[in-house]
Amino acid sequence: xxxxxxxxxETVADETRVAASIETVxxxxxxxxxxxxxxxxxxxSRIPDGEYEAIGARIGSVHDAAxxxxxxKVRRPTGGEIAGYKSGAIVIAIMDPYGNEAxxxxxxxxxxxxxxxxxxxxxxxxxxxxxxxxxxxxxxxQAVIEAAAVYDRAxxxxxxxxxxxxxxxxxxxxxxxxxxxxxxxARRLGAQVSATxxxxxxxxxxxxxxxxxVAVEDEEFKAAETAGGYAKEMSKDYQAKQxxxxxxxxxxxDIVITTALIPGRPAPRLVSREMLKAMRPGxxxxxxAVERGGNIxxxxxxxxxxxxxxxxxxxxxxxxxxxxxxxxxYAKNLVTFLETMVDKxxxxxxLNRADELIKATMLTDAGEVxxxxxxxxxxxxxxKGDL
Length: 387
What we know:
Layout: E1 4-7, H1 22-30, E2 34-38, H2 49-54, E3 58-60, E4 70-75, H3 79-83, E5 90-94, H4 101-109, E6 113-116, H5 131-150, E7 158-160, E8 163-165, E9 169-173, H6 177-188, E10 192-196, H7 202-208, E11 212-213, H8 219-222, H9 236-250, E12 255-258, H10 273-277, E13 284-287, E14 304-307, E15 310-313, H11 323-339, E16 342-343, E17 348-349, H12 356-361, E18 362-365, E19 368-369, H13 372-375
Parallel strand pairs: 1-2, 1-4, 2-3, 4-5, 5-6, 9-10, 9-12, 10-11, 12-13, 13-15
Antiparallel strand pairs: 6-18, 7-8, 14-15, 16-17, 18-19
GO biological process, one term: NADPH regeneration
GO molecular function: NADP binding; oxidoreductase activity; proton-translocating NAD(P)+ transhydrogenase activity
Family: Belongs to the AlaDH/PNT family.
């Protein structure tokens, strides 16, 4: 295999991130790669073409992808982009494969060896390659910033000669990576924070950040986590009790942030219109699962909607709203994965198809769809990543 890497400019509307940073271009050059960056690829992430050139990358056009051995992207390539890639090229991106079997078939027919970064296994070795975590961390932070911008009051308690401004009450639903960062950010801004999650282990994590944990903590709850750390499906009786508790709690909140998003599944409905109607005037809700249908009834995709008097924020790709930071982390995830494909002595590409990281993330290879989740689209399974 050759050693030419092409960093593509994203073509998807509103995608602001780029797949290579100054730091990762230096790293790739050190690994023995020649780098071509498509003109303007880093502009929205505050990386001008000249900065790439200054560290040895060449600025090119989309046509340079035809000679590339490795193509780095943020989003899955379109049909038009695929047509410009050479057979045998390695393509690494966030592929969004669930429900997009036709796009995977197109990549297979083009002879591409493609990898989905969001399928990276959650093992110790792969932590530095975990794009779900790196991007969800920023999404959780940005959710609080977006809520604060729309909320028409201050978040922290302020005691002044003119009177006291009470702290805003923020409720975070889901204590995964995004939820924990949302809790931490809201706490830093001085809000009074509470959170809920169906996993018992989340209680300690929430408390460690100074937030109040809200859940029906009965015997079923205490046994609600699998050996792998995932939530078990709860009984209808428990779900009803938990829903009643959450509804009562939401009625007292100023800001609600929902984070329940699992790749490949429709987002679970967590907040109904009736719950929103019970919230305080001027309340705000942020839905991090809008790309999968949303956790909040009435959420609008890509907009701020007025639902029962609550301003519901439904921006997709929240990490992309802070692209300089998101690109830096995503690019580091990519280059760390790419490095596992390089022979350190010869500085040449060589895929070890027996490597657990390769097997977990490879979608297409040698003209076929090879990932077991997508070989038979009638019986897909779901990767248990979380936001």
